[in-house]
């Protein structure tokens, strides 16, 4: 990687870290379309490369989040175990699929997420549910792990609303537990993509270094903005990236 490309990648990682901190994500949802469109990587390679950035970003976010919002580690481990069971076969499927088809499915996934978050941004905060039995928590991990393995992203985004609406957890606790789910899922997915030769390490490490430098700034900004506005901005960002990715795939 030449110096100019390295500098550009570090700046991109810094931007993605700030966005990830602002919206409570690892940054991969934005990184993957950019790696496809700007770096001309196939979809599976882009997903594997993004995981190099996602893993340390999520680890840092999880550590800081749990400092502010402690939650039972046993519960998080149960979800993490479910995520690990589902991540490996989903990741194997992702690296075996036709790349154009995988790119279109990923774009459709982003469109669905955009619709969901736009609706949530227009609604008042939902009342806490009575709560499903705790024994169903590993199932949340399985669903999140399947999304994380297939798309490299989305496990925490899927898990947090389920924990709030289904199990009646406070939003802050749900987001922290969702990060606990993402950590093992992302590690398993990274190892799987790397084993299949679908990781460009130099690009991923540069993105990770840039991202780690700005996550805290993004988190601080997130606490100053209304939650509904954050969700609508996130939905708009997802919509634009999904449309660009879909058009580039010839869908």
From TrEMBL:
<keyword id="KW-0812">Transmembrane</keyword>
<keyword id="KW-1003">Cell membrane</keyword>
<feature type="transmembrane region" description="Helical">
    <location>
        <begin position="139"/>
        <end position="160"/>
    </location>
</feature>
<keyword id="KW-0472">Membrane</keyword>
<dbReference type="InterPro" id="IPR051598">
    <property type="entry name" value="TSUP/Inactive_protease-like"/>
</dbReference>
<feature type="transmembrane region" description="Helical">
    <location>
        <begin position="101"/>
        <end position="118"/>
    </location>
</feature>
<dbReference type="InterPro" id="IPR002781">
    <property type="entry name" value="TM_pro_TauE-like"/>
</dbReference>
<keyword id="KW-1133">Transmembrane helix</keyword>
<feature type="transmembrane region" description="Helical">
    <location>
        <begin position="75"/>
        <end position="95"/>
    </location>
</feature>
<feature type="transmembrane region" description="Helical">
    <location>
        <begin position="172"/>
        <end position="194"/>
    </location>
</feature>
<feature type="transmembrane region" description="Helical">
    <location>
        <begin position="201"/>
        <end position="222"/>
    </location>
</feature>
<dbReference type="Pfam" id="PF01925">
    <property type="entry name" value="TauE"/>
</dbReference>
<feature type="transmembrane region" description="Helical">
    <location>
        <begin position="44"/>
        <end position="63"/>
    </location>
</feature>
<protein>
    <recommendedName>
        <fullName>Probable membrane transporter protein</fullName>
    </recommendedName>
</protein>
<feature type="transmembrane region" description="Helical">
    <location>
        <begin position="228"/>
        <end position="247"/>
    </location>
</feature>
<comment type="similarity">
    <text>Belongs to the 4-toluene sulfonate uptake permease (TSUP) (TC 2.A.102) family.</text>
</comment>
């Amino acid at each position: 990687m030449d110096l100019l490309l390295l500098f550009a990648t570090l700046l991109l990682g810094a931007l993605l870290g700030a966005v990830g901190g602002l919206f409570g994500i690892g940054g991969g949802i934005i990184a993957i379309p950019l790696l496809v469109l700007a770096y001309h990587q196939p979809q599976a390679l882009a997903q594997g490369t993004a995981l190099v950035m996602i893993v340390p970003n999520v680890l840092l976010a999880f550590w800081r989040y749990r400092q502010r919002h402690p939650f039972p580690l046993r519960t998080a481990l149960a979800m993490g175990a479910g995520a690990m069971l589902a991540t490996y076969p989903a990741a194997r499927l992702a690296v075996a699929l036709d790349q154009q088809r995988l790119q279109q499915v990923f774009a459709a996934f982003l469109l669905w997420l955009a619709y969901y978050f736009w609706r949530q941004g227009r609604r008042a905060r939902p009342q806490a549910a009575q709560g499903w039995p705790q024994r169903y928590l590993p199932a949340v991990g399985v669903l999140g792990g399947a999304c994380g393995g297939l798309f490299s992203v989305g496990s925490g985004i899927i898990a947090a609303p389920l924990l709030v609406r289904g199990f009646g957890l406070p939003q802050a606790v749900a987001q922290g537990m969702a990060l606990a789910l993402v950590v093992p899922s992302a590690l398993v997915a990274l190892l799987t993509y790397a084993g299949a030769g679908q990781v460009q390490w130099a690009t991923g490490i540069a993105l990770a270094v840039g991202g780690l430098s700005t996550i805290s700034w993004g988190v601080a900004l997130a606490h100053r903005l209304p939650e509904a506005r954050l969700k609508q901005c996130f939905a708009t960002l997802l919509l634009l990236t999904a449309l660009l990715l879909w058009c580039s795939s010839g869908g």
